[in-house]
Amino acid sequence: MNDSIQLNGQAHAVQCPLSVSALLASLGFDGIPVVVELDEQAVFPRDYASIEVRSGSKVELVTLAAGG
What we know:
Helices cover 10% and strands 41% of the residues. By secondary structure, the protein is mainly β. The chain starts with a strand and ends in a 5-residue tail after the last strand.
């Protein structure tokens, strides 16, 4: 069964609950440096495997880019 989360302000269907790590992997961000905010709280990379994303969660992802 698919649930819905808000991902960067847009509805996104996922199977909940899932870890932040699993969400990032499903989005193609596995191993890529990103900043994650879950329900308006910053999530540290060390916690990605243990923090769960649930149906209705609000997730903001920001990728890091170098350059000028």
